[in-house]
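Q&A log
Question type: sequence-to-structure
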Amino acid sequence: MRVSKQLSWGQRSKYVRRYEVDMGDHHRTAKLQSTPLPSADQAHCFEATIDVSFRVTDPEEIVRRNVQDGLSLVYRHLAALFRPVARHFAIEDAAGLETHLNQRCGGAMKLDEGVTIFRCNVSIAPDAAAAGHVRERTKLQRELELGQQRFDVEQAAQQHRLLLDAENQRARLAREATEQSALAGTPMDLQGLLNRHLQTHPGDTTYVMDMLLKVKEAEGRQRQLYDERSVDLFRFLTDRGIIQPADVEVLRGQALGRIGLTGPTAQQPPAIPPGPAPDGVPTITSLPAPTSAPPGPGGPVRPSADSTAWDEPLPPPELDRARPAAPGAAEIPPVTGDSVASTADPEPPAQAAPNSVIPVYVVLDESAAGADFLGELNDGLEELRTVLAAEPAVAASVRLSVIGFAEDARLCGARDRLRARSSASYSAAFEELLSRVPRDVDELKGEGQRVHRPLVFFVVGSGPQGGEPWADVYRRLVDRATQRYAPNIVAAGLGGAEPELISRIATSPDIAFTTLPGVTPRTGAQRFAAFLTASVLGFGRMVLSGSPSLAMETPPGFQRTNTSMTFLGKGTLP
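Response status: OK
Response body:
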């Protein structure tokens, strides 16, 4: 609308002012930028493009309301109409909002200002930020769908493979069952196993024959080594007067039985079942021999000559030389030089005692210094338990206890494994033995058992904690003048354990061992574990045979702190 100042002469007599109003059709396209349409989350907005057509239908109202710009009037009206509606739509639903607005604007809209909108077409799109968000989410959704489809394909393929594997396994088990049924009569010894292998792998004949030849050669070497050791031991015992002429007939019968001949005494059972010793495993030989004197941290603590009398406390050390030997027992000389000699005829072998038992304690260092070789000791303990389980009679004659110690001492069960802890407390280990050994022996005696003197294998990889007062509890453990059940202690040092320390712990220098130069702690642990298994098995067999006196050799890879051979005399409680 515009105001015209020029009136005709006829109009001037009636009107003062003339108004001209454009009543034609107007078509405009514009974006609602100054008043954007908010989405439902109030964080994003829709971009609206409006294509609108309108005309003036009430010019008097236009003049009355002084409307100068009809387009701005139309845009304000449409923005006020669209904004409340847009708040009900998510930013992703631009199409839904567009459809809804176009439906609202489908008919003519007559405004109070005298303008009628007869056509309105709205285009809705999310703003730039919302558009990027929608694109990213759409992309991720598509990737998720593709991933799910790929997973479904792979899962189906995996199920197919599992079905094929199961079918193949059933077929393999059926074939193996048929083979087992066909080979049911084949013995399970070495020869039988090789025959089975050749039946299924005939092309390995040359390899199997070569293996058999090597096995025979190894058996021959083992027999030769065993015979050489037996001869050396026989000479040693003969030179020292331990074997007397009366014993030769028994040994002759055993030797004839070994080579398949018979004689007057060939069928008598030996103290230890004869057989080749495994290569690298020490031999434990039955000997009715005396007991050596154990040294303590503060000086020697000598046992009584009557090592079999456990009913009463042993006499003080100074009475050793004055006390007469028990009837039938060997006189025990003091330990001097590099050997132990007997000055009397040996005691005749005792009869087998099925209810005899020897307590054996394996005390192992669990301090941080032993972390490198604890795995080998764990394997050795498992092997020892397996060997004892395979020989129930021997296991019944050995009461085995495993004690691990670091800052404290603990009794290890069959399922327990050694584990590296803090520094080593020797006092804790000896306190545990001092508490446990008398209690165990009393319990065994209460069961009616004939109990042999306990034996301790003490294996360490380092010295005690600095300044630790362990000597007093050690003396109370091994002093036979005050401790009726004082054990024999075999000490072995691995790694950083000093030879002087090992000699002080062992109840005789001849059963104190340290690794040879160049032998690593892990190798030493492996070899001592094999020695431990053979020793415990030999002790058990000795108890069964009724002749528990043993000669202990040096473990492979070790050296004695004192080079003489040690005899651990028997001592039982009738």
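Response note: Confidence is low (pLDDT under 50) at residues 263-353, 563-567.
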